[in-house]
Structures are given as C-alpha cells and as structure tokens.
Amino acid sequence: MEKASSHRIFLIVGALLLCVCEGRSITGKERFRRGFDLSSTHSLISDTRLPRDFLPLNYTLDLRPNMAESTFTGKVRIIIQCNETSDRITLHAHHELQIERSDIRLKRIVEEENLGDLNSTEVKIRRASHTPKKPIFVIYLVDTIKNGTVLDLEIEFSGMIWENAEGLFKGSYMDKNGTKVEYLATMFKPNNARRLFPCFDEPSFKESFEVSISRPKDYHTLFNTDPFSTEPLDGEPGTVVDHFNLIPGISTFSIGFLISNLVVIKDETLPAGEEQKMKVYVQPGMEKSFPGIYEKIHIIRKALEGFWGSEYPICNLNIVALPGLTTVKAIDNWGLIIFKENELQQASYFTIAQEMVYQWIGHSTTPQWWNDAHITRAIAGFLAATIAQQYTDDFDEKWPMTVLYSIYYEFSKRYPHSRITGMKQESICSKAELFLRMVNYTLGYDTVRKAMQNFYEDKRCRTFQSDDIWSAMTIQAHRNQVLDKSITVNEIAESWISKDRLPVVTVDRNYDKKEATVSQKVYLRERPHDVPEQDKMLWFIPLIVISEDKLDFTDTTPKMWIKKTREATLKNLPDASKFIIVNPEEIGPFPVNYDVANWNLLAEFLQTEAGRTTIPIYTKAKLLHDAWNLAYGGHQSFATAFNMTLFMRDEKDHLVWNPVFTMIDHIGRHIDSSAVHNKFETYVRILLTPLYERLGSEAQPNEEHWKENLRSLSKTFLCRAGYKPCIERAQAAFATWRTAKDPDAETPVENQYICPVFKWGTQEEWEFGLERVINFPKDRKQSERTYLLKNLAGCPAQTEKIERLLNITILESNGNFSENDISLIFSMLSGGSNGYTTLFHFLSNNWDTIKERFESKTNLWDNLIGTSTGVFTTQEGYDMVSALYVKRQGEFGSAEHIIEKSLKNIKEETKWSDENLPVIEKWLDNYLKTANTSANKFMG
Question: pLDDT tens digits, residue range 901-914?
C-alpha cells in the first residue's frame, strides 16, 4: 500500500478524480450533485443511508487473508472530499469488523502552488466507534472540515472469514482423489463489502480501486482485473501478494475475487495466436467436462454487444465453475462470474446470458439505489430469454408462461406474497421482466434496442434510475412513431410496476354494431374480492386483436391503448360468426375474459384441424389458462371453462398441457369433499389416458426433456386417479422393497409410485411404509424420510390409515416423531377432504387429551386448529366447525382467532361451492353421457 506514489494521488485528487471508463469522463462536480438526487430506500433491502457530507474519490485496498485460521487483516486508504462542512466522517463497517482508534490515520491533502506535488497535514481525531445495531462506523474529528477539502483516510482492520456466502467466505470440495480442497471467495451483493473493509457501501458511489491481495504461493487469485505484479510477502514464506490493475469507477458490490487452485480451460474456438481474454476456470481434471462452453460464451457476448451497441465493457472476463459453492444464484462481479460447478456444466444460453448481461447494466451502469435493482434483474432476464429463444429450440421451461402463471396466482391473492419479503422481491422482478416483454412486442424490438443503446451510452460508468430507461424508450418510440405522443412509457411503466396487482380485461362484444366494450378491473382469484382501493387501480393496456378472418399472429401493433380508463370501445370487429382474440401470445401480463358467444366460437374452432394448426402454442395455452382461472375466480361460468378443454384430446404440445395439470389440482382439491368429485376424476381419466398412452409408459433413448416431464405429470395424476397399470407397477416395486434383506438401507421405489401404493394399496403396505419412517437410519438423507412421511400422511384414501398415524404421533407420543414431523403431518392432511375431515373428528373426539398435550406448544396447537378447521368448502363443513366452536368456546386459547378466521373463510368457500358445483356437475353429466367412460383400467 505504501507503494502508491504521491504522483498517482495527485493525478486522482488534483483532477477531482475524473472517472475514466472506456474514455468516458465524469467530473467531480457532476458526481457530487448526483449524490443528492437519490431515490428513497428500497423497502425490500434494509440499509442505513450515509450522509453526504463526505464523498469517496478513490480506494487503495490491501488485503491479507489467512485461509488456515479463517481470519483476515487489511488496510484501506480512501481519498475523500468534504461535500458539506462537517466534524465527522461516516462510512459503512460491519459490527464484527475490528477497528481500533489507533488504526486510523487522517490527513488533509494540499497541493503546493506551482510545484505539482502534494503535502499533507494531520487531521486530529477525537474518537471513533461502531454505531450500535447498525453497520455504521463514525470518526469524530476535533475540528470542523470545510466544504471542498480533500482528505486521505487510512484505516487498518481485521476480521473473521465467514462460512456462509456473505462478504469474504471460505468453502471447500472433495477433489477426484478424495482430498479436501479449500478456497476463499467474496459475495458483496447487495451490501456486503462492508463485511470485509470499511467503505461507502452504496451503489451510487462509483469509485476507482487499486487492490493488492495476498495468497498461498500454490494458489492463484482471480479478481476484477489482472495482476500487474506479484511479489513475496515479507516475513511469510510461501505467501505472495498480487497487485492488480486499477479498476475505474465501480460500486463496492461490483468488486470480487476468488483464491483457489482452479485451472483454465483452453479456448479451442480462437484462431491461432489470438489472445484468450475470456476464460473458464474449473477444478483440475474437469477440463473435458464443459464441451461447447466457449462457443456459447462467444455467441452470447456477440449477441449482447449487438443489443447494447457497445463492445464488452472490460478487457477480460473470468467465468468460474466452483465446486462446493452454496449460493442460490451465481456470484456476478465486474469481470468475474462464479457459478456452481454443476450449474455451469448444464448451463444453457439463458443461464450464462443472464449473468453476462450484468457486465453492461449492473456493473458498468449501476442502479442509483436498491429500489431500481429489480429493473436490472428484469432486463437481465428479458435479454437472456431473448438470446436463448434465438439460439436453442428447447428454451420453454421458464419463460414466459411458467413465470406468468405464478405471477397471476400471486397477485390475485387477497394478500400477495403472504407478506414474505423474498417472495415479493422475486414477484416484482418477474413482473418487471414481463412488462419489458410487453413493451418489446408493442413498441417493436428495434425501438427497444435503440432506446437501450441510447440509455447505455448516456449512463455508461454512471448510475441510473428506472425512469431514465423509460424516458429513453419514450423518446425513441415517439421518434419511430410507434407510440402516440400523448402517452409516455414512463406512465405505462408506473401503472404496471408500482402495483402488486394485475388487471383482468373483459371484452363484451356487440355483434350487431361490430363493436366491443372493453373494461378493466383488478384480477382477483382468491375470495372474497374485497381488496381495498381496487376501484382506484387502473393500467395503460395495449389491445392487440386477432380476428378469425385475419389470423396474423405476427402483427403485434396495438389496435388501441386503454389510457388508464375503466372502459373503452373497440371498433371494426368481424361479424358475429367470427371470434376475436385479445392479447394473443400473452403479450401483456393480463388475462382476458369474453362474452359467452365469443368463448364458444373459440372452443369450437380449437377442435377443428384449422384451429389445431393455426392458433400458436402460447395462445392456446393462454386461452385455456384464462378460461379456467377466470371461472375459478368467479369471473365466468365453469361450463365455458370445461368447453375450452375439449380440444385437448388431440393436443400434443406440453406447453398447452401445463395449465391443465394446475387446473386438475386446484379444482380437484376444491371439490374433493363433494359428490361431484368422482365424476370429475372420471373426466380426468378420459382427458389424460390418451396422452399418457401416446407418450408411452417408459422413457425412450435421447427423447426430448419435455416428453419426460409430461409423462411424469400425466402418470402422477393418473396414478392418483387409480390408473390400474400404474398401481400394479407401483405395488410390484413395493413388493420387491418389502422382501429386501435390509429394507431400511435404501428406498428402491420411484418417488411417483410411493403415493399410489399408500392411497390404493393395502393396510399392510401402508404399515410397511410407517415402519420405514420409524426405523429410518440417521446416516441416510433425511429428506428421503420426509418424502416418505409426506406421502404416508397425505395420500391415503382410507380413514383408518390416517387415524393410526395420528394415534401414534399424538396420543401415544411416539418418540420417533418430532414436533416438526407432526406439523408436517398436519400440513399434508390439509391437502384432501379425507385428511382434514379425519383430523377434525380426531381433534373433536380427543379434545381434552390433545389440549393438555399441546397447551404449552402454541405453534403445534395453532397449526392443528388451522388445519382441522380451515379447509372445509361446504355448508356441512361449516356446520361441523361452527358446532365445535360453540361447544369449546373459550378453550381455543392462542388459536381463538384462527378458528374465527376459519369460519369466515368457509362461508366464502361454501358460497363458491353453492354457485359452481351445480354448474360443474351439469356439464360433467352431459359430457359423460357421450364419452367413453370404460373403467376397466381404473380402480373402483
């Protein structure tokens, strides 16, 4: 650190640190002005904002990790400028980072007139300390520092290396010889650089860094930049220090390094003599396990450079396959991306592209505060999906349907995200990604790409707010005349991204006038529909319309925009014999409802050869999904929804089938306790049997992944419905297990066969499963025991099996079952009427004993009351729960509010059942009269 010359400091400070990044400069004045223009704290990331009285200009960081002792020491030198007269310096430092007053030195930097050199005078420090319960460190000064003064702050520090992936952490893996190999890595996102060194740890501070890191001689360090020199560490044989090239203007979370003994794979795709600037590192001996990896990386790089209109923003990129990494997502740093080893081995274009995007937006240009981080992730997801769809045929697992469906379900709840922060963050990112997809279709890819290029050129090496992106799109859309000048993308984005809700659009056609009234309201699936202020929620909605007389699905130009109004009129529609489709291909993230006549026209057309071949896959899936979920939410008749499934008997595409399985599960659970359920299961058998038999019962060599998934899903649902070939195979596998010499050594039965045996098999087979749970060896994976227990509780159709399990675990207090096991059993019993009804009667009949046993265990007691009373959907269920409530009034203790909530919910579900079960039953009766209902392949 002492090697840093005064000349270098002069260059940095004397020019007020012109932030040079690819030839782009930002003056100190501009940087400091921007410091005040910040968004409010993002509610999803709890953090303490720093005052703007001192601002960093440059860091010189010297780190000394000790891998053997899991400790580190270091020294950081920060050139700071006083932005507002103050007598204290406030910066971030984790409370476990050790800093003593004697470890801090502070000097005022003064340029000697006409000498081109720097002198420094000491600034006296009164005291320094951590702020209680906050990651803040404050240095109190004896004298007040005036605005504009430049200081040289030097702090020595020490700390412990973390085991979990936060800050600097240590990991390990077993190599091919069975030897344990350790490594050190960093994870600074979103705000964990403060765990390693004192700093201004906010994304809006983009400073230059000069970094030196020590390491064992037989290891190497991958950093954001390459080392320019390496030297032995004095007094520590076997240890060397790498000095790395200057990093221009990045945020603290963009820094990262990895100390390991990984090796680089040679890039065979490069012409002879060309320097390898992008490198993949793997553990020794695994070099041949990543075929085609460089080809993918180069393709993705070129695609991203084409989109951004800019070359890759840093000289080198190191991509790492790190065994033993425990993070949920890859660790992306500027110039260094660290994947789990198995994830990079299986890496698709999507996976790699999603991480590489951050090199442009995220690191080169950075969100000003965490409230715009979701836009960065959304752009990464959108671009990665665009690239993946361009370069591979099998990219359809994630985007857009599965993401969209989960968003529909979440935002249609009375309380989205169940108030879980992590889930909310994922939902917000996914919604923003889907919004970008909508804009891409409605404004056009060329408009979006040019707008993003202009945005990037303007904000490169700087920070941005999401409004900057929407403004760039607005300018380009108006310039290209693809958006009415009375509308801005900023307005459109605000209407979509600011709400934890989505709209449902209803199209009610006037066939005589060839018009339609189009209205919007909040889409609510979960009852009751009493969301506060829903009448005030409005969106800018693009109306893309396809009509039967002109089936052109390539034209995605909106026929009109609903400009945040409740209703609009759609004109010039086809005659009454022709259907229309609004929002084809799920271009906008909203379901669409029609009048009954238009739904019926669609249902009939889909059953024709023309319908099967001319309606695209995503649109067929959308129509099916919308029809079912709108019916489930009470927005239309179930008769209409069932009619929309009639075309499925000839449907082969798995994307269209995906919503069917969700529908079967949701509706099946809801009507489980009614007399209609058996008829519904017959309908499911008729629907799925041809599909399953067409796919075949066993996987074929080299078949597509989707076939395997579709076969597994159809087999699972048919097995539950009592499909005899499945039950027989399951029982045969189970018989082999029962005769095994050591049945507790492993579970030699496929997971999908466990539930059918416990449901349709004998009491003896179920008892065998119970013994396996009780005797489960502690040295086996406990997740396998959990899976067995889940099926043991959740699958049986016989009351006796459930009662037996409850007697053992609750009344007999069998020591082999923990409180977590009992909670799991309660949860599984909530999945079917036989389970929760049996649990209710068990509670009623053994009230005093159970109450005494659970009285001090409020979590179990509350769970039991909620599960046993809260899932009924009929008047009969309401009467049973109500009678228990009256009989045991005042005895529910902590669960008093739970049973009261149960009664309220059952009232709503009863209303749903009263309205919909007669409709469902009537449709099923009419359908089953003409359908082939042969049951010889099914259990009675």
Answer: 999 999 989 999 99
